[in-house]
Design brief:
Layout: H1 2-5, E1 14-19, H2 22-37, E2 41-46, H3 55-60, E3 67-68, H4 78-96, E4 100-104, H5 108-119, E5 124-129, H6 142-152, E6 155-158, H7 161-169, E7 177-179, H8 183-192, H9 204-207, E8 212-217, H10 226-241, E9 245-250, H11 255-265, E10 271-274, H12 279-287, E11 291-294, H13 297-306, E12 310-312, H14 320-324, E13 328-330, H15 335-347, H16 350-356, H17 367-375, H18 378-385
Parallel strand pairs: 1-2, 1-4, 2-3, 4-5, 5-6, 6-7, 8-9, 8-11, 9-10, 11-12, 12-13
Helix pairs in contact: 2-8, 2-17, 4-5, 5-6, 10-11, 10-15
The structure holds uridine-diphosphate-N-acetylglucosamine and uridine-5'-diphosphate.
């Protein structure tokens, strides 16, 4: 029983990193790089919950993949993903016998991976721990995934002080919580320091040089159907009313998103539906934006570093720091509010000017090193196990 044997003060040396979706790969990459720099034996397992969204990231960040679980299916169900991760990860855990397993965030890969490790009594480290929306049903299923991982984790890597306090309030031992920042900022800085060779989007940005550019992304399950449809119609109508505005929308491959995007936005000359972009290309697009409109979690963390204002297409956010620092405004699932905020941003650029020069509450690019420092502190594993 690895867990029981390691309740003493020995830091892990052989660490299995489990990821499988786009944001997990981005946020894991700096941590894997840092563990390699610090001499850990790294075992990198790709659940492959995503396929096409993931492969360019693995290439970009040069992550070595030791095992791939191949779980993605077209139109997959949550239970299908969870079952396939549990089933396929177990023999890898048995074979590799890691000292610790790391998961990131709130995906089904993270939740099922933590459970698989728990069942084999392997200690779990949780990157981006302690985020809470307060509503167990939203974001769905992410809020519950995150809470479940917190129950199983031995190391909690909190991005912010608020995340630390949340975990503390829930009864997590203070010795096992570490404020590290979010490694997405490390990934962003790493990527901005390595600009791509090709012009992003095949020169589209040059063609849109004289437009105010909205970058749009949306993919959350709780918005599927009416809410997502109403948001996209509102954006279409806003673009129709304003000649100087254009939209670039890298469409998530989820069939629920692709269908509604094509139905509502296709054919509009100033709305450009494009394939999901490689990370450097997407950051180049964001850097050129006038306004971001998105339900993405990662974008809420990236926006302050890029100095871009963001309208959050969600009822709530488990990243209230983005709203409190002034970089983001919450739309709350209301098309009326979305329309009002779009018009407000169009008539008054004070918000954009304020966001352009702001510190990022989610970190400064040193999260990965701090996570490794925490893993190396013997007291953490011992305290959490106790
Ligand atoms: C998942 C995560 C969500 C995260 C998002 C990031 C869960 C429950 N959800 O949502 O937290 O914000 O990833 O993007 O873990 N697909 C492809 N190719 C891909 C990826 C997806 O075709 O590379 C299509 C497939 O039809 C797949 C569907 O998208 O079945 C949904 O993918 P899934 O991972 O289940 O959910 P996401 O909506 O991507
Ligand atoms: N992203 C990307 N290409 C795109 C859209 C997003 O590289 O076409 C990046 C984005 O910068 C962020 C991450 O993907 O780091 C967010 O992923 P997503 O919105 O799918 O998931 P979430 O953050 O909502 O979990």
């Amino acid at each position: 029983m690895i867990f029981l044997d390691q309740s003493g003060p020995t830091p892990p040396r052989r660490v299995l990193s489990l990821f499988g979706t786009r944001p997990e790969a981005i946020k894991f990459a700096p941590v894997i790089h840092a563990m390699e720099r610090r001499g850990f034996e790294t075992i990198n397992v790709n659940s492959a919950q995503h396929r096409d969204l993931l492969l360019p990231l693995i290439e970009h960040f040069q992550i070595r993949i030791d095992h791939s679980l191949d779980v993605m299916r077209e139109g997959q169900t949550l239970n299908g993903v969870a079952a396939r991760v549990l089933e396929a990860l177990d023999p890898v855990l048995a074979e590799c016998r890691p000292d610790a397993l790391l998961v990131q965030g709130d995906t089904t890969t993270a939740m099922a991976g933590a459970l698989a490790a728990w069942n084999r009594q392997i200690p779990v480290g949780h990157i981006e721990a302690g985020l809470r929306s307060g509503n167990p049903h939203s974001p769905f299923p992410e809020e519950m995934n995150r809470r479940l991982v917190s129950q199983m984790a031995n190391w909690h890597f909190a991005a912010t002080r608020r995340n630390w306090q949340t975990l503390k309030r829930e009864g997590v031992a203070a010795e096992s919580i570490f404020i590290t920042g979010n490694p997405v900022i490390d990934a962003l800085k790493w990527t901005l320091a390595r600009p791509g060779e090709r012009p992003p989007l095949g020169g589209l940005l040059e063609k849109l040089a004289d437009r105010r550019l909205i970058v749009l992304t949306t993919h959350r399950r709780e918005s599927f159907g009416e809410v997502m449809g109403a948001n996209l119609e509102t954006i279409r109508d806003f673009v129709d009313r304003h000649e100087d505005v254009a939209v670039v929308f890298p469409v998530h491959p989820n069939p629920h998103v692709k269908r509604v995007a094509a139905e509502i936005l296709a054919g509009n000359p100033r709305v450009h539906l494009v394939e999901p972009l490689a990370y450097p290309e997407f950051l180049a697009l964001l850097s050129r934006a006038w306004l971001l409109v998105s339900d993405s979690g990662g974008l809420q963390e990236e926006a302050p570093s890029l100095g871009k204002p963001l309208l959050i297409l969600r009822e709530n956010t488990e990243r209230p720091e983005a709203v409190e620092c002034g970089a983001a405004r919450l739309i709350g699932g209301s098309a009326v509010r979305l329309r009002r905020e779009l018009e407000k941003a169009h008539t008054d650029d004070a918000w954009a000017r304020k966001v352009a020069a702001m510190d990022n509450p989610f970190g400064n690019g040193e999260a990965a090193e701090r996570i490794v420092d925490a893993l190396l502190r013997p007291v953490a594993a011992a305290a959490a196990a106790a």
